[in-house]
Amino acid sequence: MKCVDCKHMTSSANKDMARQGFSQCDKDPAGHTYLSPRRDRKCNLSAPAAPEDIEKRIAFLEKRNG
Fold first, then answer.
1. Which is it for strands 24-25 and 9-10: parallel, antiparallel or unpaired?
2. 3-state SS assignment for residue 2
């Protein structure tokens, strides 16, 4: 699963990192790891996000990438 498709992804914690294309996981105990939301990952904590949330995230990422 990609982070962009997971309900635990957040980009609101650090707007500067979000503008650079990175996100964080709400389940990350360290709280300071930034991930590429489009990279496939094997994660035991992943859970599907709502389709409307995924659409908003993809739109944000596409807008950011020009």
1. antiparallel
2. strand
In 10-29, which positions are buried (b, 16+ CB within 10 angstroms) versus exposed (e)?
A: ebeeeeeebeeebbbbeeee
In this predicted structure, what is the pLDDT of residue 40? 93
Exposure string over 42-56, b if 16+ CB within 10 A, otherwise e: eeeebeebeeeebee
Residue 66 has pLDDT above 70, yes or no: no
Residue type, 39: R
- Local structure of residue 57 (DSSP, 8 states): H
